[in-house]
Predict the structure of Pseudaminic acid cytidylyltransferase.
Amino acid sequence: MTTVAIIPARGGSKRIPRKNIKPFCGKPMIAWSIEAALASRCFDRVIVSTDDEEIAAVARKWGAETPFIRPVSLSDDHTGTIPVIAHSVQWLSDNGPAPETVCCVYATAPFVQLDDLQRGLQALRQSGADYAFSVTSYAFPIQRALRLTQSGRVTMFQPENFTIRSQDLEDAWHDAGQFYWGCAGAWLTGQPLFSERAVPVILPRHRVQDIDTPEDWQRAEWLFRAMEAEAQ
């Protein structure tokens, strides 16, 4: 069984220019994902899918393969993860042994840990699902979420939950944005990630941080350094 990690890393990030190779706590951002994938020993190959030669060079320096350059048609702001991974799976199938199990690891996931990747592979194999991906819980009940009106006032999305105690409301979860294990066939046929055909790999909230803005980046570095200091 051939198992492959695909790390998507296009060059056109706008909110944080060159985000995928920008230094994060002493290494290019993408290096953390590559190192975690290699250290997990889950994969026969660790491949970076990019449209950018500079990103490809950095990826190779840190131990990943870049056997192809991603087409421009799959490198814009509107292309989703599934088509990018499907392209990689198809290319690999056309140019060598076809992978059977494929894990998308995001390039901007410095908190990803090797044991989480291992748990994800185990969950996929034991469950018989199409996908297994990282999730974490919301810190506040989504049933009590507020909206700001055009007149500058406040209303509830679900007013019927106003009198219900927070601890009595159902827990809610969201995509942790770190990794997505999947069967090659599910990627190729475009099966949706968020469905009954997926199983969760639960992460603690303190190891989950979206990095989309400069403020996110600063917060992530603070949190990362704090976790490193605690581990010493």
In short: The chain has one domain: 3-136+174-231. The chain is about 30% helix and 20% strand.
